[in-house]
């Protein structure tokens, strides 16, 4: 990846976050006005109505549309995987990338089901990040390059971006990020991930605790934490979220790892995630806690905990349905339906 | 409708309910076996995995499929509408049926989004059922005919049936059914429906209380309650559920009114709804209570409260996605992905 990407620094990324565009209030207001005229009791479509207004506000147009949704899956490897924090060997990251390319993973089927374009971004899998119990996971420049790489997922024409990841041991990185950004014991943020329990789960918790303690003194903001205890795929998600905001592309976040990456931006500016929706509440216990901190109610709650943007991609079907109602329904006047009696 | 339908009695319907087929355990087991081999940690797709096994068990085949889903919306009018229990005039039932036919309602857009066949069944709208605070809503034969009519929604070739309703004042009937079948105060089961509040909400509660008290002495089972405080569209939903079970078509129930209709069968035999899934938790407060009684966790929770099978139709997208994963994913062996360590 490095040779295609210009040099970058985290300070440049900080400058981008300080200058994010806001919502298009006029488009949001047009959505609300039309919604009130459609043949249903006011508010009867619940969150589908909220979704439409949110999409209009962040696409900056009315009516909003989802014609070219993209699912972006970033894959990275983690030095801490060698510490035995996952139920699967680190080789599975690359094997699953091959599975994505061959069309055999869950996200492939889900992309077909919702008619989304799937892009898989493999990030130097043969060079895991450093074991962050001993050193920062990435250098400033490596982290900034990974962020810049993630920005490339936002290409002209796409109108909705579902973000997810693949990376053995990355729920350990996610837990470390959450613990660092929001406080609390490591155990509060650590969960089974792909399925660790017993001694392995205790090891995972100890790794998170040790990592946060080690780096606490040297960090000043979320980007520093991303560099110290994150990973390339998590940094890329941060980049994709920033680029999507600038390109007026609403974002759907997947599970614990993807949302923990997004939390880095929240820590810099809580408004930085206003164009992001959390697709679902993962079964990974830290995710519900994280969503509380972010103030983001999930759209779905199906006990999923797969990652690879599976929940985010599934949520595209709900967003499409919301927009279909908003755009296609008749108004009371058009349909000759009597309004509410007072 | 009467001239096309043979004479029927509620006792004939009782006999059908006493003789419902069970699940195909072998098909369910085949689904579980394949699920365990797919390239994901065990259980990582959460409820999507349960959905697949449930679909296999009730379609009686593996792999299960959804190629021809149908959304059936039954529309009926209620004598109690004249008592001012709804925020909308009774004329809206027929007007909304016209809107369904013209393609302007929410359910039309949702059916397009999930590629479901929409059928709307208009049930003698010009002849509302009797005001059930004064007399049974229907005669034994009228109720049985409405059930038989509902059975016609299950035609050869359909592989999933989403059930919903349209009927001004039918959340009053739904509340009366729930209060009668499960006990508790009327206020426990009565909610705003399309948007009543204040004096109208008190009136609605009083109507439910009065209706249940009036008929309590004369009923012996759920079918009697359906006849006394139900409605034609609710009886038709009962019929569609019975017919679907016999034809091995899994059912997706919509909101409060549709689920209250289904509860009539639950009261006769709790296993009678095992082939039914509740699509979503409606914002109507009685629905959550009803789902607790039925032991059915909803698939979605989006604050919807529109009826017209909108939630049930939306849930088809989730079921399709679940089956797509199950059918299309590679196994660990096919993809050359390493399994769980230990």
Q: Could you describe the 3D structure shown?
A:
Two copies of one chain form a homodimer. By secondary structure, chain A is of the alpha/beta class. The first copy, chain A, folds into two domains: 22-64 and 325-335, Nicotinate-nucleotide-dimethylbenzimidazole phosphoribosyltransferase (CobT), small domain (5,6-Dimethylbenzimidazole Phosphoribosyltransferase, Chain: A, domain 1, Orthogonal Bundle); 69-324, Nicotinate-nucleotide-dimethylbenzimidazole phosphoribosyltransferase (CobT), large domain (Rossmann fold). Helix content of chain A is 49%, strand content 8%. Chain A is built from 15 helices and five strands. The first copy, chain A, has a five-stranded parallel sheet with strand order 2-1-3-4-5, sandwiched between helices. In chain A, helix 12 links the parallel strand 4 and strand 5 (276-278). The first copy, chain A, is elongated and about 70 Å long. The N and C termini of chain A lie far apart (63 Å). The mean pLDDT of chain A is 96. At the A-B interface, helix 4, helix 5 and helix 14 of A face helix 4, helix 5 and helix 14 of B.
């Amino acid at each position: 990846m490095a040779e295609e990407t210009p040099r970058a620094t985290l300070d440049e990324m900080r400058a981008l976050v300080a200058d994010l565009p806001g919502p298009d209030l006029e488009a949001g207001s047009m959505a609300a006005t039309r919604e009130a005229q459609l043949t249903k009791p006011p508010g009867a479509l619940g969150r589908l109505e909220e979704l439409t207004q949110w999409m209009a506000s962040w696409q900056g147009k009315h009516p909003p549309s989802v014609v070219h949704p993209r699912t972006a899956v970033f894959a990275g490897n983690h030095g801490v995987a060698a510490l035995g924090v996952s139920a699967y060997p680190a080789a599975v990251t690359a094997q699953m990338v091959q599975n994505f390319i061959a069309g055999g993973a869950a996200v492939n089927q889900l992309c077909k089901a919702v008619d989304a374009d799937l892009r898989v971004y493999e990030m130097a899998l043969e060079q895991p990040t450093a074991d962050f119990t001993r050193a920062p996971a990435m250098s400033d420049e490596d982290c900034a390059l990974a962020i810049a790489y993630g920005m490339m997922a936002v290409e002209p024409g796409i109108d909705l971006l579902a973000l997810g990841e693949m990376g053995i041991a990355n729920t350990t990185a996610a837990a470390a990020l959450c613990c660092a950004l929001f406080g609390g014991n490591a155990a509060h943020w650590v969960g089974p991930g792909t399925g660790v329990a017993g001694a392995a789960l205790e090891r995972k918790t100890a790794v998170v605790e040790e990592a946060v303690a080690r780096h606490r003194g040297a960090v000043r903001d979320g980007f520093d934490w991303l560099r110290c205890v994150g990973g390339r795929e998590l940094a890329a998600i941060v980049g994709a979220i920033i680029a999507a905001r600038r390109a007026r592309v609403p974002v759907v976040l997947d599970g614990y790892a993807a949302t923990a990456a997004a939390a880095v931006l929240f820590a810099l500016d809580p408004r930085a995630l206003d164009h992001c929706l959390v697709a679902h509440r993962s079964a990974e216990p830290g995710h519900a806690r994280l969503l509380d901190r972010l103030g983001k109610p999930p759209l779905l709650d199906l006990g999923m905990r797969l990652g690879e943007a599976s929940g985010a991609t599934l949520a595209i079907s709900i967003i499409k349905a919301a927009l279909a109602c908003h755009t296609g329904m008749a108004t009371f006047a058009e349909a000759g339906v009597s309004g509410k009696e007072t």
